[in-house]
């Protein structure tokens, strides 16, 4: 748990630290902000497009060897990122860092599920969830301190000692985790089609924030992604040993759990717009904003291990349903924010969202991993990781577009305008619109949760997921 937890901590810290450092790197490396954004985009595209192929590879060979290789690659590429002479080298090394990260993120939950007994699965995944929350919460603050003390290179170099220490722990203490079936063949056609599908989709959704959904390039990328997805589904039906057994999705419980996770991560994207409210409307300093943005992940981290423990003892359905109800209430409460809201009023509105997510994610993840055969744990773990990345790449442009559309609809403000020049009341209008959409998405997840609960109860074989 320590070794795998260090890998999870590195990946989440890296994701949250890098955002803080972009303005500094743009200045120091003397490049445009549009160019510097490829430091994030190159990493995200690798992470999204390769996750299922890597997960399938881990199922076929050794999860430990793939995970350990990813951790070493992530550590080495972090060192190279920290030594990069210019922005182009940095973007190239970030591609290798993303390749290392995808090996870890695709298989971490599968390794935890396979190593720990069924009675401890929820608690173990809850601990992993708490580590994710800690990384997200403290990443921006740690990034600010490191940049202030040692410059932007330190945010990459900090991964090196953690990564190599964790590699030693994993190599000595994690079992080999050999495949449960031998003589399998890797589905190169399916992997290629899925990679192209996810790459085009993620690129199209990410660039749509700047170009708009009606831009020919965006429409072309999304259309090509849809065509490749159709080709992938057709190929998987014909190939004897497909990359993904599509029969997994005939299990409505498994499909409901994955879809609920996706909806929650799409809705959570609206939270990334909160700094506009806190800085422009309320006038808080960046330090105060950073501390306030820790509220959601810290609330998640406090409840995640407890939620996992309770799901082991009482089953996942009731706990995750309660979490969704709390998250729904949190979004509704955030939909009532106004210009004169106090600091305490903001915190009281946002805490239920964090607590709800903490109650939901660990039991839901446990239900996903408990619904598949052991020989497909890697693919299930990859699908779970994919629901997070697709949720973010889908949610951010949708929430940003809605935010701008609401403001534009109020006083004909054009998208290219300066955000700091927008009247505070219009920012509040735009933000509450995104929170209402978030509440609607969580409400759909609640209905899916009730459906899954009913399917569990009506199954003649009893609950698969406790």
Tell me what you see in this structure.
The chain has 466 residues and is mainly alpha-helical. It folds into 3 domains: 1-182, Up-down Bundle (Growth Hormone, Chain: A); 187-242; 248-466, Growth Hormone, Chain: A. Helix content is 79%, strand content 0%. The protein is built from 18 helices and no strands. The longest helix has 35 residues, at 377-411. The protein starts with a helix and ends in an 8-residue tail after the last helix. Mean pLDDT is 82; it is low at 461-466.
**Large-scale geometry:** globular
Please count the beta strands (DSSP E, at least 2 residues each): 0
Strand content: under 5%
Structure classification: mainly alpha
Largest sheet: none
What quaternary form is this?
Answer: single chain
Name the helix and strand elements from N-terminus to C-terminus, one letter apiece.
HHHHHHHHHHHHHHHHHH
Number of domains: 3
- Average the pLDDT over all residues and give the rounded result: 82
- CATH architecture descriptor of the largest domain: Up-down Bundle
Which regions have little confidence, pLDDT < 50, spanning 5+ residues? 461-466
- Say what the CATH topology of the largest domain is: Growth Hormone, Chain: A
Approximate helicity band: over 70%
Instruction: Give the full name of the CATH homologous superfamily of the largest domain.
Output: MFS general substrate transporter like domains
Supply the number of helical segments: 18
Can you tell me the CATH class of the largest domain?
Mainly Alpha
What is the radius of gyration?
22 Å
Terminal Cα separation, in Å?
23 Å
């Amino acid at each position: 748990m320590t070794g795998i937890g260090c890998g999870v901590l590195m990946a989440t810290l890296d994701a949250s630290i890098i955002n803080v450092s972009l303005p500094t790197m743009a200045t120091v490396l003397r490049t445009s902000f549009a160019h510097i954004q490829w430091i994030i985009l190159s990493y995200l595209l690798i992470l999204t497009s390769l996750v299922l192929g890597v997960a399938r590879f881990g199922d076929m060979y050794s999860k430990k060897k793939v995970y350990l290789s990813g951790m070493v690659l992530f550590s080495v590429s972090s060192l190279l990122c920290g030594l990069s002479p210019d922005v182009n080298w940095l973007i190239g090394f970030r591609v290798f860092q993303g390749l290392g990260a995808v090996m870890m993120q695709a298989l971490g939950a599968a390794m935890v599920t396979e190593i720990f007994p069924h009675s401890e699965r929820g608690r173990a995944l809850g601990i992993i969830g708490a580590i994710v929350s800690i990384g997200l919460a403290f990443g921006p603050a740690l990034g600010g301190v490191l940049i202030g003390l040692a410059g932007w290179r330190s945010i990459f170099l900090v991964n090196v000692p953690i990564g190599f220490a964790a590699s030693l722990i994993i190599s000595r203490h994690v079992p080999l985790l050999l495949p449960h079936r031998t003589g399998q063949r890797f589905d190169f056609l399916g992997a290629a089609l899925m990679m192209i599908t996810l790459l085009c989709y993620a690129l199209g959704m990410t660039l749509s924030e700047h170009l708009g959904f009606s831009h020919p390039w965006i429409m072309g990328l999304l259309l090509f992604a849809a065509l490749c997805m159709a080709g992938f589904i057709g190929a998987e039906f014909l190939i004897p040993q497909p990359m993904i057994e599509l029969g997994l999705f005939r299990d409505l419980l498994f499909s409901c759990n994955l879809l609920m996770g996706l909806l929650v991560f799409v809705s959570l994207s609206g939270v990334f717009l909160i700094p506009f409210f806190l800085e422009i409307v309320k006038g808080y300093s960046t330090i105060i904003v950073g501390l306030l943005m820790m509220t959601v992940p810290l609330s998640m981290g406090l409840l995640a291990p407890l939620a996992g423990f309770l799901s082991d003892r009482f089953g996942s359905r009731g706990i995750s349903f309660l979490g969704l109800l709390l998250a729904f209430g949190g979004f509704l409460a955030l939909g009532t924010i106004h210009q004169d809201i106090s600091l305490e009023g903001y915190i009281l509105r946002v805490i239920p969202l964090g607590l709800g997510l903490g109650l939901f994610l660990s039991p839901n993840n446990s239900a996903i991993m408990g619904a598949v055969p052991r020989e497909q744990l890697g693919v299930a773990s990859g699908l779970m990781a994919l629901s997070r990345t697709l949720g973010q790449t889908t949610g951010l442009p949708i929430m940003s577009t809605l935010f701008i559309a609401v403001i534009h609809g109020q006083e004909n403000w054009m998208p290219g305008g300066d955000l700091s020049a927008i009247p505070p009341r219009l920012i509040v209008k735009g933000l509450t619109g995104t929170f209402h959409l978030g509440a609607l998405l969580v409400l759909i997840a609640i209905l899916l949760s009730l459906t899954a609960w009913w399917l569990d109860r009506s199954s003649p074989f009893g609950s698969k997921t406790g």
